[in-house]
């Protein structure tokens, strides 16, 4: 168990920090990621020393989830520490890292805790290979932070490793850990949207089929920079890489699924709310600030639409997550608390078949794949196997040639059809 290292404990140490409504909307799970470093890789001591110093400025990660006598969850910033597991592997990294992928990825990060209350909220497994290579598996609990926040922490950890023992981790500005300021309701809370059935689930929401996990297959698809340039040309106006790739994959997967033309399909799109609140929340705020947009189209229209038309649908849905919507969400949380309502975050269990729908998480703006601990960026950055059909993640490619990787979970019956068309823009 690794404790934060600093001359003076962070002023928040000892506090019990209530979860915000954004924290409570986040899925109650540990999120795994895996990075691989070829030899000469950073030593275990460098990794641990720099982590201990970075943690001193991020006390939430070294704390624990606790429950009060009313059943409400808090983050207890008790400096209990993070778990570090060190493993020696009697093989060369080149023997197991094939084409940027590792087959037994689930063994390379700490086992997901069976009970989240009281468990270390940040855990690392250092897998040291015979050749000196390192595969580092990390899990962290989503109630602590979203991807944007963890990207900020990774940058600090990396700087501490590259700077050596004399490097002093900078003290974050007060707003970085000010969770309460991100969820201030109006004097008279006035929620105007149906948050009980959007961000949360009252039991009346659409239910999906749940199947054995062996019917869900994980794929990785690589999109070259040239392919993305072609997509952007097809859109016909200035658009982001994320918008173009999502429009493309939505069209291709819908075709591969062979859906009824009259059916509707939607995508659950994670939206960073930091710059959308009034006033904006600084980008380096450490916590959760994500809501979701739901672009929706009839299958017939989706397949017959141009890339530009589909990108417009995605943009319009995302634009609705604005200051008014976010304030309504915060007000909803205040009303729920006043009424003593329990809130269950919308989350799919393992084995869920989301067909005809999709869910996308974009890690394109995060620096996870650039985590240089003193010997260079990782040669591979890998999300875990995805246990929900229709769930996908975009990440920057770890290959030297650039481009982007899609990790996607598919119904085994749709894999061949998707593979045949996913790299075609026709």
TrEMBL record:
InterPro entries: CAT-like_dom_sf (IPR023213), Plant_Fungal_Acyltransferase (IPR050317)
An annotated Gene Ontology molecular function: acyltransferase activity, transferring groups other than amino-acyl groups
One Pfam family per UniProt: Transferase
Signal peptide: none
UniProtKB keywords: Acyltransferase, Transferase
Cross-referenced PANTHER family: TRICHOTHECENE 3-O-ACETYLTRANSFERASE, TRYPTAMINE BENZOYLTRANSFERASE 2
Family of this protein: Belongs to the plant acyltransferase family.
Protein name: Uncharacterized protein
Organism from which the protein derives: Eleusine coracana subsp. coracana
Gene: gb18814
